[in-house]
């Protein structure tokens, strides 16, 4: 289980890096064109929450209790909620919300598996 949390955390960091690159590009483009869109800033917020959840998953993988999985679940859940709230405006955030939701479900699965033992 520790190895799965490690690899899922590394995968999450890579995905968050992609989110950050795309969001920084969007934020700078929105600033330069004075378009008034907020998709870059919200993307940076979602990517930051996703990155924090992945880092918590890696750091707390050896903890005796479920605190790491619970914290990452909350962070992924908040990222999912923000992405879903803005999906009607920015349609690409729907795929980001699905990815965040998958990571939240994985956190729930880790909690259930740890409690089962």
Written overview of the protein:
It contains four helices and no strands. The protein has helices at residues 2-33, 39-59, 67-85, 93-116.
What's this model, at a glance?
This protein has helices at residues 2-33, 39-59, 67-85, 93-116. By secondary structure, it is mainly alpha-helical.
Q: What are the defining features of this structure?
A:
single chain, about 120 residues, mainly alpha, about 80% helix
Distance between the termini: 11 Å
Q: So what's the overall shape?
A: elongated
Q: Helicity, in percent? A: over 70%
Largest sheet: none
What's the overall average pLDDT, rounded? Answer: 91
Order of helices and strands: HHHH
The number of helical elements comes to 4
Topology at a glance:
Blueprint: H1 2-33, H2 39-59, H3 67-85, H4 93-116
Helix pairs in contact: 1-2, 2-3, 3-4
